[in-house]
Specification:
MutS, DNA mismatch repair protein, domain I, 380 residues, three-stranded mixed beta sheet, alpha+beta, four-stranded antiparallel beta sheet, DNA polymerase, domain 1, 17 helices, 3 domains, Dna Ligase, domain 1
Length: 380
């Protein structure tokens, strides 16, 4: 989708049509830009940019908070449209998916005709535009979809993969970030065409297994299938403080609230997590991540205890700008030994499911741990 969050807001607020729109954190605080309309991008505003910088670049923009519930609802509409054209739909994010159109010609015509019909359906049913890439594999389709936004369609014909990629900057290759791009520049490589001329053995010697992948992608080779029902790899929550936090108690309370949110997501998905990761962003701009692996759990208190233990080990002496908790190594709930080792954890997980039902009926915050009461009182 094209500038998805911002486009949804422009659709729902006609007065914003044609105006720069920036969706994300409060421009008076810290945080980052979640999405920027194409009108805002003219001023240099981009996703993931610090919100303060975006406000300086485009002070006359409309700054709006993220409305994730609304975006998910629109996303479900879009995914349903895609599922009407193929059973093989792999959502990548709330606004992006891969669709395998193999074998659908008798129903929808050529793949290109099918893609054009998909774009029309999305526009008619959601009043939003989508850009698409049609190619022999996922990597090429993704690259193609980004080249002619908004409302674009780029087709890569079978047999023309290397020729299509050749003039593009090497940063278009998956896995080539700033560090890899700098290393490639040292080899005299700035475009994919130049990368194609580097012998595979040289890339492997310099970058190991990443060199193998670089060589394959430079020629447009990607044999990964479209996987429609892939489970999430992690679930998490994080908070950027309006002012640098020096209060250890506030850090712990914030982690406790994040553990509750992540545990609720785990229960909703039927997952338990075997690894907990703590994320800290320290002033001026250093990011640290620390992880702890244990028995799989979906218990909020257990998630918090592991994250708090990691925080304690860090002995943070500098102000904290952001703190986050994520759960990974996900698997089906109820298969670990934690419930046997700690019967109280089993009772808490059952209680958590009761809280989920109460929340669904009466709203967020109906039941919260007593340790979070002071935090809610401050926010009110």
């Amino acid at each position: 989708m094209d500038a998805f969050y911002a486009s949804v807001e422009q659709r729902d607020r006609p007065a914003l049509a044609g105006r720069p729109v920036i969706v994300g954190a409060d421009p008076r605080g810290r945080g980052v830009v979640s999405a920027a309309s194409y009108e805002a991008r003219v001023y240099g505003v981009r996703s993931a940019m610090p919100i303060g910088r975006a406000a300086r670049l485009c002070p006359h923009a409309a700054f709006l908070p993220v409305d994730m519930a609304k975006y998910r609802e629109v996303s479900l509409q879009i995914m349903a449209i895609l599922a009407g054209f193929s059973p093989l739909v792999e959502p990548v994010s709330v606004d992006e998916a891969f669709v395998d159109l193999t074998g659908t010609e008798r129903l929808f015509g050529s793949p290109e005709a099918a893609v054009r019909r998909i774009k029309v359906r999305i526009r008619e049913e959601t009043r939003l535009t989508a850009s698409a890439g049609l190619a022999p594999n996922k990597f090429l389709a993704k690259v193609a979809s980004d080249l002619e936004k908004p409302d674009g369609l780029v087709v890569v014909a079978p047999g023309g993969e290397a020729r299509f990629l050749a003039p593009l900057p090497v940063e278009r290759i998956w896995g080539v970030g700033r560090v890899m791009a700098r290393a490639l520049r040292e080899l005299g490589v700035t475009t994919v065409a130049e990368l194609q001329r580097v012998p595979r053995a040289v890339l492997v010697r310099r970058f190991g297994r990443h060199g193998e992948a670089l060589h394959a992608l430079a020629f447009g080779r990607d044999d990964r299938p479209v996987e429609p029902f892939e489970d999430p790899k992690s679930m998490g929550a994080e908070e950027t403080f309006a002012a640098d936090c020096r209060d250890p108690e506030r850090l712990r309370t914030t982690l406790r609230a994040q553990a509750e949110r992540v545990a609720a997501e785990l229960r909703a998905g039927g997952f338990a997590a075997g690894r907990v990761t703590l994320k800290l962003r320290l002033a001026p701009f250093e990011t640290r991540t620390r992880s702890l692996t244990g028995e799989p759990t979906q218990d909020a208190l257990e998630l918090y205890r592991r994250a708090a233990a990691l925080l304690e080990r860090e002995r943070v002496a500098r102000p904290v700008r952001l703190i986050g908790l994520s759960a990974s190594r996900l698997g089906p709930a109820g298969r670990g030994q934690l419930d046997l080792l700690d019967p109280a954890a089993l009772r808490r997980e059952r209680l958590g499911r009761v809280v989920d039902r109460l929340t669904a009926r009466f709203g967020q915050g109906t039941v919260i741990p007593a340790s979070l009461l002071s935090k809610r009182t401050r926010s009110e």
